[in-house]
Amino acid sequence: MIRLAVGAVLLLSLAGCGKATRESDDPIPASSPEAANASASTAVAAASTAAAAETPAAFMQCKVCHTTEPDRNLIGPSLAGVYGRRAGSLAGYPYSTAIKQAGLTWDEGTLDTFLTSPMKAVPGTKMTYAGIKDPAARREVIAYLETL
């Protein structure tokens, strides 16, 4: 889905190459080719945003223990707003001492390391999950977490 959206954006970008820019401040007539291109660009941008927020397949295993709803924890804490949050800081969740004292802030690098092998990254964590071994799947999950 993401590849399709990116491809569409590239095609639309190339379609506009070599066209003169409008120097007038007059509005673009709705029936003009420029209006059609603008409309298509808006649709592709919306599709790209939706694709970025689409739940990746690799995240389905995370949903066994985590929710993406704020203030709703399962076995693991809610992942809503996790990107940029300090590890072990979500109020109301009983984190392990190890994760509270890890000194991590969840960003691309820390999530990549942690999701590769949580128990190696933070020995003593309650997250007894083997990890996401496929780097591409991990990147998709991290990109998704950033949207939450």
From TrEMBL:
Keyword Cell cycle: no
This protein's name: Cytochrome c domain-containing protein
Matches recorded under PANTHER family: CYTOCHROME C
One Pfam family named in its UniProt record: Cytochrom_C
UniProt keyword list: Electron transport, Heme, Iron, Metal-binding, Signal, Transport
Superkingdom in the source lineage: Bacteria
Domain Cytochrome c: 50-148
Keyword DNA repair: no
Matching InterPro entries: Cyt_c-like_dom, Cyt_c-like_dom_sf, Cyt_c_1A/1B
Signal sequence extent: 1-20
